[in-house]
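Mods, move this if it's the wrong board.
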Amino acid sequence: MHVLKTCAACTMGLGILFVTVFVLSDAALLKRQAYFNRTAYLPCPFTKAQNRSQSELVIFWQDQKKLVLYEHFLGKEKLDNVDGKYRGRTSFDGDNWTLRLHNVQIKDTGSYDCFIQEKTSKGSVILQQTDTELSVTANFSEPEIESVPNITRNSGINLTCWSKQGYPKPIKMYFWITNSTNEHDEDMQISQDNVTELFSISVSLSMPFPDDVFNVTALCVLETASVKIVSRPHYIVLPEPQTDQKENSSWILGAVAIVFISVFFGLLLLLLVKKCLRKQEQPGIS
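Not the wrong board. Structure tokens:
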């Protein structure tokens, strides 16, 4: 069905503010995802490409604020209408009818429209419109655990875990400790950079060392809407009670020595007594 449409962005190359155009097809909606600081691909697949050359068409992309990213005017790149924030950030793949948006930032998230127009004597006719919904994501760094040095049973377990430069906002971060069934997330903090809009997250843990245990393993878990990231194991080992062992060993050695000496002198006394008895029993000895 033909739809009558007025669009300020459809005036490129015509030198007027508004132009009435006929849309010959419904807009197609696509979804694409790009990584932070990488390249996004905004497709504009033209179903009638075999019948027309790009030198006969006007192809352009605009964002949700109607700012122009790129214009391919009758076979050549045209920068007159391109907004300054997109200059130097785009390149056109003519073989695949795709616009590459380089150095993608979080603020580039949103919807983009591609228009393919044909110029006629009566004005411009929109042959096709493609809407692309772009989402931008950034991978969080692997969670890292730091602990207070020189841990003792009295000092307890004191850990901090952090991860940074991710998007979208994380759901939660917590510790998992051996010999414990609880998720420890009592002190979790999330911050966002004002420039990059990336998130950082940290969590701290302070708890007594489990009784009768000399080593535990800690893991830090970061959960986002799409993934769960687990840190490398962090091993916490209490020093062996060497002083007590030495004292116990000394006491045992001393006790053994006393027993040995007592047995030795006991045997020696027994031998002397027997010897005296034998002398008394021999005849002719006075």
